[in-house]
Amino acid sequence: MKLNFYGADKEVTGSCHCLTVGDKTILIDCGLQQGADVTDNAKLPFAANKVDYVLVTHAHIDHSGRLPLLVKQGFQGKICATGKTCELLSIMLRDSAHIQEMDAEYESRKGKRAGKAPVEPLYTVKDAEDTLKYLTPYSYDEMIDLCEGVKIRFVDAGHLLGSSSIEVWATENNITKKIVFSGDIGNINIPIIKNPTYITEADYVIMESTYGDREHEHIDDYTKAFADIIDNTLSNHGNVVIPSFAVGRTQELLYAIREIKERHLTPKNPNFPVYVDSPLATEATKIYSGDLHGYADEETAKLIDQGFEPISFPNLNMTESVEESKALNTDGVPKVILSSSGMCEAGRIRHHLKHNLWRPECSIIFVGFQANGTLGRILLDGIDSVKLFGEQIAVKAHIFNFRMLSGHADHTGLLRWIKAYQPTPKKVFVVHGEQKCCEGFTEELKHYGFDAYAPNFNACYDLLSDRILDYGMEAQVLHPKKVALSGKQPSPIYARLVAAQHRLEDVIRHNEGGANKDLTRFTNELIKLCEKWDR
After folding, report:
1. Read out DSSP for 339-369?
2. What DSSP designation does 242 have?
3. From CA 440, how far away is CA 434, in angstroms rounded?
4. Whose CB among 189, 331, 333, 370 lies 3.0–4.6 Å from 377's, allowing a Cys bridge?
């Protein structure tokens, strides 16, 4: 009985773990790695055709985005998840595939001018559609006989509609071990969905640590604070641009905006227009507006039973076409724009940033975690300008970070979740957090009496003999260009320096294929700069 760690190990994205019981191989999540510092997503560290089952904790792409690649490379087993996760996957995987195709087309077009071979997409829309036939939906709290020697149960993780922690009872050589995979543990009091379920018994726990080193801001009325930003920005004739994950976060924001309008919290702009500029978000909103019995929290369920639509309000607009999207930045009407992706790595949000970042009257509100190397993280770190679509854009807009809107449990929430186990598990594997955070949270759990361990990528653990078989590879080996931050929290000025590093990397990539004399001059200038500042 072995547990292999294949993703989100001392990192935040690309969640993927593998449980081997007897002759059965079971993946828990198969996520896409996101951000600048990623390994090759196309290289699965296992044979796809040898995998029998995939258990999906939730539909976010960093937990599900390589499922079509798995199918493309030969997987033919069952993909198990809750019913709502299966519904969301049906739209999210197709959308992800469309992005893969568009990115490959762009890179091929650019590479053709440099004499390079065409770039193949990671997977296609057809691959995504082929994946859907393997989806098998289950209900929360349903005991499932997965295969001989393995029972599983999905319990509500409170992170996203349909999200789950997964309990696994595995039996081998007449020995049974209970393993719990936390998935992403939800924040409390998130609109629409329930609070996370607290599990109390397990031999082994694999838990996330995204916010293991920080607390969310505590504002008595975050809806009022959110409304004040909207009212002030619109009164100054600026736009409020919110990079938002199309599934989950967008719908929670619509719920909050409905409350803002009902409570008349924007007196200077009572009927302000809101645009959801993401076809994926539009499709997801339809799912969130459907039958949520068994998934919605008590307040939302009551609204639905009364015939009220909790994420609908006057002057809510869904844009579909590219032309409609472009018009949002040319019509001159101050507005709120919700657009994906949430980390600003792709999609229409990059166009809205191009048109609004340089305007001091505008506001950009981040409402979710921003991974290292993403444009969202670079903006939060305080950079002065960014390059978008070949053009240098000054950052003059007001940048806000509303952590209290996060769908992840913060430091206190994570401790509350793991301390519910009585007695403590035999071992807690800490994953899905940036290296410094993951290792720091692991040490804190040890202080509370847990046998905690932060595994490396490709590590392997024998659950029957309770020992490490392979220590795997350190994150710094996987991503040598990452800046290792240790000790005290970096200063804002140092954070800007790190942001400038990411910008330099982009500039270097943009110069690929340039004239030799220009590249030589650029290289010499960088060498001189390094020699001046190397300490």
Report:
1. ES-TTSSSSTHHHHHHHHTT-TT-EEEE-S-
2. E
3. 10
4. 370
What's the CA gap between 265 and 227, in Å, rounded? Answer: 6
pTM of the model: 0.79
Q: What are phi and psi of 462, to 5 degrees?
A: -90, 115
Q: Which residues does 286 contact at the CB level (< 8 Å), separation at least 6?
A: none
Sign of CA pseudo-dihedral 248, 456, 82, 61: positive
Closest of 49, 53, 58, 41 to residue 7, by C-alpha: 41
Q: Classify burial at 269, counting beta carbons within 10 Å of its beta carbon; exposed 0-12, middle 13-18, buried 19 or more.
A: middle
Q: Which ranges constitute the DSSP H helices of 138-275?
A: 222-235, 249-262
pLDDT by residue (tens digit) across 136-156? Answer: 999 999 999 999 999 999 999
Which residues are bridge partners to 393 per DSSP? Answer: 386
Write the CB contacts of 101 (distance below 8 Å, at least 6 apart in sequence).
Answer: 121, 124, 125
Task: Encode 350-360: b = buried (16+ Cβ within 10 Å), e = exposed.
Answer: bbbbbbbbbbe
Nearest to 247 by CA among 308, 163, 133, 309: 163
Q: Are 370 and 331 in contact (CB under 8 A)?
A: no
Q: What is the dihedral of CA 248, 252, 258, 262, to 10 degrees?
A: 160
Which of left, alpha, beta for 190 (phi over 0: left; psi -120 to 50: alpha)? beta
Identify the bridge partners of residue 176 per DSSP, sorted by sequence position.
Answer: 171
Q: Where are the alpha helices (DSSP H) in 73-119?
A: 83-113
Evaluate the CA torsion angle 417, 419, 425, 430 in order and state its sign. Answer: positive
Measuring CA to CA, which residue among 361, 258, 291 is closest to residue 83?
Answer: 291
Report pLDDT digits (tens) over 167-223: 999 999 999 999 999 999 999 888 889 999 999 999 999 999 999 999 887 766 778
